[in-house]
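As noted in the main text, all predictions were made from sequence alone. Below is one such record, for 3-beta hydroxysteroid dehydrogenase.
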Amino acid sequence: MKKLVLTGAAGRLGSYLREPLSTMCEQFVSSDLADAVPNMAANETYVKADITDLDAMVALLEGADMVVHFGAIGDEAPMEELWGPNFYGAYTIWEAAYRNKLRRVVYASSIHAVGMHKKTDFIGIDAAHKPDTFYGLAKCFAEDLASLYWDKRGLEAVCMRILSCAQVSNSRAVGSWLSYDDLIHLVERAISTPITGFSVVYGVSNNDRAPVDNAKAQHLGYHPKDNAEQFAEEIYATDGPLDPRDPANTHHGGPFAAVDLGNSGVAYLNLNTDDTAKT
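Prediction:
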């Protein structure tokens, strides 16, 4: 691959992807709103750019083969805040990719696109959209945009519905954990699979209690290795009995399924951030 672009490169997950993605291409371009990113690879160029600026995205993706799109607000927020980066920003990426004749968009979607489904339903990649928040609604919009651009314009997309990519620090994560190694493996497969068309895949590790089914995404060759069961006994003992009537415990979206629209869901996740970002 000659040129690969990563948006959201200064974010928590984007920072983990920069190094491995730089090895997959001749020219690696990372982008975000930060003034700079540390520890750049020899073939990496950083471009400060706003994903709500279509002209800037067209320029950013010029000459690229693919774009890995992680740039967005990563939490529930009022619609007025999400509209630009999460909704319109998705459009600018797909439109810029189309104008530059890219082959594929690899997109950081989320379990929150289907967050109001119950965890006991064990949903597959063909589950109907059922967002839990405005944030989840933005993921639904981007997935439908990806489907539209594939059907009408032949632009491939892999939409990765990431569950919980952080340390296992709560009962929900025993099932929903996506380790950083498995995240990297997932993104690499989304890039290297020869033909994807429009594909959806759940970003989850090989957890004994994983509440989603990737059986219909086998063409991507994603085979996660890590398992959160090693943390289960300690986590369950710490959390104690869970309320079976609380949507945060019973639905895929976790706290996002319980908060009022516009209010942070991340604030209730009890995330351990000791190793969730590289500096």
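The longest strand covers residues 104-110. The chain is about 30% helix and 15% strand. These features were considered when defining construct boundaries for the mutagenesis experiments described in Section 2.9.
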